[in-house]
Design goal:
heterodimer; A: mainly beta; 11 strands; about 0% helix; about 55% strand; B: six-stranded mixed sheet; four-stranded antiparallel sheet; 12 strands; about 50% strand
């Protein structure tokens, strides 16, 4: 009964490859997020979608492209992977409009991406 | 722009003792939320405690409590009766909680607990 799930949990790949990380939430939330935790453990927002609309797009290389096919899913595709992309990527969700607002974000387990 | 500062990269405490982790933040908003998240080696982000800025009363959750000083923009976490399982990285975070906003995290404090 996982609330926010991510696949895969671990991803090891070579430089130059293209990879995707998938996220799904079964909480009925309207907003989903991608955060990146770098090697120094610093967490920073990358993207956010509200009802399938991109609402946060931080300064991230164009090689990163999020896609939200529906409210419950948010995927992250990364082209031409570089060594510096190695990090843990967290998906999160919340309800930010209408009824039943949540006052916290619910995090997935994270995906550890290692680029060699 | 909002910022969150955790000035203690590392802290240590003995079992059963009390420890306080510091956090300061900067914002021009009046309505916001503050959080402490725990990240053990499993890397799962676990919400420890939440404080609504409009509430004057400090939040408590069992052995965890906060000292929220809105005017000073300070939000410290007190862990009482520390346990070995409390060892983890702790992140202070700020959220304006409107569409188009996201959590802003401090750099974290690594807490070690010794027996």
């Amino acid at each position: 009964d996982t609330a926010v799930s991510q696949t895969p949990k671990y991803l090891v790949t070579q430089m130059g490859n293209d990879k995707s990380i998938k996220c799904e939430q079964n909480l009925g939330h309207d907003t989903m997020y991608w955060y990146k935790q770098d090697s120094k453990k610093f967490l920073k927002i990358m993207f956010s979608y509200n009802n399938k609309e991109l609402i946060i797009n931080e300064t991230v290389p164009n090689r990163f492209s999020p896609k939200s096919p529906d409210k419950a899913h948010l995927n992250l595709h990364i082209n031409s992977l570089e060594l510096g992309d190695s990090a843990v990527y967290f998906c999160a969700s919340s309800q930010t409009s209408g009824g039943h607002l949540t006052y916290e974000q619910y995090f997935g387990p994270g995906t550890r991406l290692t680029v060699t | 722009a909002q910022t969150v500062t955790q000035s203690q990269p590392e802290m240590s405490v003995q079992e059963a003792e009390t420890v306080t982790l510091s956090c300061t933040y900067d914002t021009s908003e009046s309505d916001y939320y503050l959080f402490w998240y725990k990240q053990p080696p499993s890397r799962q982000m676990i919400l420890v405690i939440r404080q609504e800025a409009y509430k004057q009363q400090n939040a408590t959750e069992n052995r965890f409590s906060v000292n929220f000083q809105k005017a000073a923009k300070s939000f410290s976490l007190k862990i009482s009766d520390s346990q070995l399982g409390d060892a983890a990285m702790y992140f202070c975070a700020y959220w304006h909680n409107q569409a188009g906003t996201a959590l802003i995290f401090g750099k974290g404090t690594t807490l070690s607990v010794s027996s």
